[in-house]
């Protein structure tokens, strides 16, 4: 897919993932669990950051349930209450009180004891709009993950950053900005892409 404008690319791949049927989304969610179970980094992880699917994103709901069953602690991204444009990761469990953020996305309520510092996480699974053969990720355009994960990109932290996407979200080359954080791995329902070993 060759489109000059990042906004046009974003619109195209959002439309692709939103065109998937409910059955295709459910199948993708189940395949995601199977793929992750093959990953040594996931098997060994005890603290995992995931997300609640929105706008046709690959839904990690089954993966979240699997983590709970395996005794892994799950954290969700929450808009940082004091640092605009950044995220904090908050403990999420079946009885977590939830609130909607300014984008209408549900987040667990923040408390002083529920936040997990980024260095304590083993894996951060991120949603994405598109990805390319080099592991570049296109998000929704807000830059939240790029700002939050900058210490990981600078090798200051040893957190595995893994993008989750549908098969239809892969393209040859994405326009890359200096602040974009490349993924270590990307998992689709059909394949695990390794871009950087940790």
UniProtKB/TrEMBL annotation:
<dbReference type="InterPro" id="IPR024185">
    <property type="entry name" value="FTHF_cligase-like_sf"/>
</dbReference>
<dbReference type="InterPro" id="IPR037171">
    <property type="entry name" value="NagB/RpiA_transferase-like"/>
</dbReference>
<protein>
    <recommendedName>
        <fullName>5-formyltetrahydrofolate cyclo-ligase</fullName>
        <ecNumber>6.3.3.2</ecNumber>
    </recommendedName>
</protein>
<comment type="similarity">
    <text>Belongs to the 5-formyltetrahydrofolate cyclo-ligase family.</text>
</comment>
<keyword id="KW-0547">Nucleotide-binding</keyword>
<dbReference type="InterPro" id="IPR002698">
    <property type="entry name" value="FTHF_cligase"/>
</dbReference>
<dbReference type="GO" id="GO:0030272">
    <property type="term" value="F:5-formyltetrahydrofolate cyclo-ligase activity"/>
</dbReference>
<keyword id="KW-0067">ATP-binding</keyword>
<keyword id="KW-0479">Metal-binding</keyword>
<keyword id="KW-0460">Magnesium</keyword>
<dbReference type="Pfam" id="PF01812">
    <property type="entry name" value="5-FTHF_cyc-lig"/>
</dbReference>
<keyword id="KW-0436">Ligase</keyword>
């Amino acid at each position: 897919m060759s489109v000059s404008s990042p906004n046009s690319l974003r619109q195209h791949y959002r439309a692709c993932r939103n065109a998937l049927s409910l059955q295709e989304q459910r199948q993708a969610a189940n395949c995601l669990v199977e793929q992750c179970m093959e990953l040594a980094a996931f098997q060994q992880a005890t603290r995992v950051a995931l997300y609640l699917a929105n706008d046709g994103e690959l839904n990690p709901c089954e993966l979240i349930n699997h983590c709970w069953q395996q005794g892994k602690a799950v954290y969700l991204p929450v808009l940082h209450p004091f640092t605009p444009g950044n995220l904090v990761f908050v403990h999420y469990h079946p009885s977590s009180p939830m609130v909607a953020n300014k984008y209408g996305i549900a987040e667990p309520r923040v408390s002083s004891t529920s936040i997990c510092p980024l260095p304590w996480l083993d894996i951060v699974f991120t949603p994405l709009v598109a990805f390319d053969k080099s592991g570049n990720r296109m998000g929704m355009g807000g830059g939240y993950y790029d700002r939050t994960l900058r210490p990981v990109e600078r090798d200051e932290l040893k957190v595995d950053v893994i993008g989750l996407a549908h098969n239809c979200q892969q393209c040859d080359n994405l326009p890359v900005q200096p602040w974009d954080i490349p993924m270590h791995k990307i998992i689709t329902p059909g394949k695990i892409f390794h871009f950087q070993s940790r």
